[in-house]
Amino acid sequence: MIDLGLTKLAVIGVVALVVIGPEKLPKVARMAGTLYGRAQRYLNEVKSEVTREIELEELRNLKKEVQDAAQNIKADVENSIAQNMSEVENAFSESTYDGTPSYEPVSFGHVTTEDLSRKAREFRRKKLVRNSAIPNWYKQRHGGKLHVTSGAARVARFRPRGPTNSSFF
């Protein structure tokens, strides 16, 4: 930096007053101050931009490291799963003595839509019988459910009541 003391500034001011003149000196000083402020703002913007770029580069490097670590972990997990699956398959295939599998594969090829509809009809009929086994007058007298009640309605029904003349203030 330039080493400017009070005496040097005074000498510069006197020379400027003589060269420029007393009429134009305030305008030139204002212009010099404005240019000096612009230069400082420009330098601060450049510094902040360089700092942002450095931080962004550090974040990119960190992201790359994290992705590499994640890929390594994923590969390790996939390898261990494949190894464990092969061990289980080997143990399962070696568990039979004659080499044939000891289980019967389940197939649902024989199930038809008629069977499914018949099962659904039976289920609905049994549910109707279960629900209608108790008459409504008995349910009303002994507090049984007559219809489906929502959760909010149940909460409101069993919420303890406060004093009736309470104010909200």
UniProtKB/TrEMBL annotation:
GO terms, biological process: protein transport by the Tat complex
A single Gene Ontology CC term: TAT protein transport complex
Membrane-topology annotation of the record: Single-pass membrane protein
Family annotation (InterPro entries): TatA/B/E, TatB
Subcellular location: Cell membrane; Membrane
Presence of the UniProt keyword Signal in the record: no
A GO term, aspect molecular function: protein transmembrane transporter activity
Record-stated family: Belongs to the TatB family.
HAMAP family, per database record: TatB
Function summary: Part of the twin-arginine translocation (Tat) system that transports large folded proteins containing a characteristic twin-arginine motif in their signal peptide across membranes. Together with TatC, TatB is part of a receptor directly interacting with Tat signal peptides. TatB may form an oligomeric binding site that transiently accommodates folded Tat precursor proteins before their translocation.
PANTHER family found in the cross-reference section: SEC-INDEPENDENT PROTEIN TRANSLOCASE PROTEIN TATA, CHLOROPLASTIC
Subunit structure: The Tat system comprises two distinct complexes: a TatABC complex, containing multiple copies of TatA, TatB and TatC subunits, and a separate TatA complex, containing only TatA subunits. Substrates initially bind to the TatABC complex, which probably triggers association of the separate TatA complex to form the active translocon.
Protein name, entry field: Sec-independent protein translocase protein TatB
Annotated gene: tatB
